[in-house]
Automatic annotation (TrEMBL):
Species: Pseudochrobactrum kiredjianiae
SUPFAM superfamilies linked to this entry: ATPase domain of HSP90 chaperone/DNA topoisomerase II/histidine kinase, HAMP domain-like, Homodimeric domain of signal transducing histidine kinase
Protein name: histidine kinase
High-level lineage: Bacteria, Pseudomonadati, Pseudomonadota, Alphaproteobacteria, Hyphomicrobiales
EC numbers, comma separated: 2.7.13.3
Span of the signal peptide: none
Length: 394
């Protein structure tokens, strides 16, 4: 039986019981063995007639009266001496058993606690900022220790991924802010030096850059709210089809400018949702499709129920689709549908990240895939039966 298969309480109980049994066995058999030696020594001290009476009684025979009286007289002092020595033997063997059990218990305790010592050392490294540390999975220990090591390794891996994403996102934010700030600074410096005229065109260019910065800040705030689980604070019954229809009607000019033909297949689907956040997610997917899939000239929006538990909203285009490493369920912050990080096509690269955050805040999931006939599909899947509560923080 391996220790790793047992709980700490079970191991402690088994070790305690084993130590008690071992102590009792040491005292019992030790005293019995020494008592036999002392018995032979005492018998050798008897006179011949007393020894003869003892042997006859041992054989269940009746000794002579004189021999029996001699045996009784000699046994009394021997009994008192033997009784004192017996007590002393119990104490000696008890101490020996306690010492031996202490050594065994110390060895077992070290064996059980060694994984915790390794874990403590690794935790100190993690505290100092080394998120790559791991505890070997082959370390022996009780069931709780094994589970603790497994959970710690998972936590360390998650922290390492978070640290890597934070480092990337910090660089990405700096990259996104640098270009518009450089443009604004250059224009303002040029107008201050009277290199550029202070006309309406220059001011409109500055407003355009400032609006872009404002959108980026709002997008970052949305992701920050999602990280702190405060993105969706109010949910009511919302028809996905109705919300999508409103966004499509408002986006007609955007679709026309992109040269995209709209096709709909909207079916009623009621979900508990934050209507404002839901509309924000739909608009983000629409803008993303118009920005990166305009060359396909086609956009389809459909909604309905997937099953008794889930509803969906799907947007399909005929664009170039997602890159191979972006299909499935993973969308990184600041990811764009184009290989370069140029802002030529506009946008902050946060669109689908925000959509995923909004859907996740509703308890749903975002799925994206490339279609066999060309183009891409983005599907937002929401649960149908979440309790509708005002002020419900997810």
């Amino acid at each position: 039986m391996k220790i790793s298969r047992l709980s700490l309480s079970t191991v402690s109980a088994l070790v305690t019981a084993a130590m008690l049994l071992l102590s009792m066995a040491i005292v019992f058999f030790g005293v019995l063995w020494v008592q036999n030696l002392y018995e032979q020594e005492y018998l050798d001290q008897l006179t011949p007639n007393a020894r003869r009476a003892y042997d006859m009684l041992d054989r269940l025979e009746l000794p002579k009266e004189a021999d029996f009286l001699a045996l009784v007289q000699q046994l009394k002092p021997l009994y008192e001496t033997g009784e004192a020595e017996l007590y002393l033997l119990v104490v000696k063997f008890g101490l020996a058993a306690a010492f031996l059990c202490s050594i065994i218990g110390f060895w077992l305790a070290r064996k059980i606690s060694r994984p915790l010592e390794n874990l403590t050392r690794v935790v100190n490294n993690l505290r100092e900022g080394d998120f790559s540390v791991r505890v070997p999975d082959d370390v022996q220990g009780t069931g709780e220790v094994q589970l603790l090591i497994h959970r710690f390794n998972a936590l360390a891996e998650e922290l390492e991924n978070m640290e890597r994403r934070l480092r990337f996102n910090t660089m990405a934010v700096a990259h996104e802010l640098r270009t518009p700030l450089t443009i604004v600074q250059g224009m303002l410096q040029g107008m201050a030096d009277k290199v550029f005229p202070r006309d309406d065109d220059r001011i409109e260019d500055l407003l355009t850059q400032v609006e872009g910065l404002s959108r980026l800040v709002n997008d970052l705030r949305t992701l920050s709210l999602a990280a702190s689980q405060k993105l969706v604070t109010e949910r009511n019954k919302v028809d996905i089809a109705q919300a999508a229809e409103q966004i499509l009607q408002a986006s007609r000019p955007l679709l026309q400018d992109a040269g995209m033909v709209l096709e709909t297949g909207l079916k009623k689907a009621i979900i508990p949702a934050d209507n404002q956040r839901l509309r924000q997610a739909i608009l983000a997917v629409m803008e993303n499709a118009c920005r990166y899939a305009a060359e396909g000239g086609y956009l389809r929006c459909e909604s309905g129920y997937l099953n008794k538990e889930e509803a969906f909203l799907r947007i399909i285009d005929r664009g170039p689709g997602f890159s191979q490493d972006m299909t499935g369920y993973s969308i990184d912050v600041f990811w764009r549908g184009e290989p370069s990080r140029s802002r030529a096509s506009g946008g902050s690269g946060l669109g689908l990240s925000i959509v995923r955050a909004i859907v996740a805040a509703h308890g749903g999931r975002l799925e994206q895939e490339n279609l066999k006939e060309g183009g891409a599909s983005v599907t937002m899947i929401f649960p149908r039966n979440l309790p509708v509560k005002t002020g419900d923080v997810i």
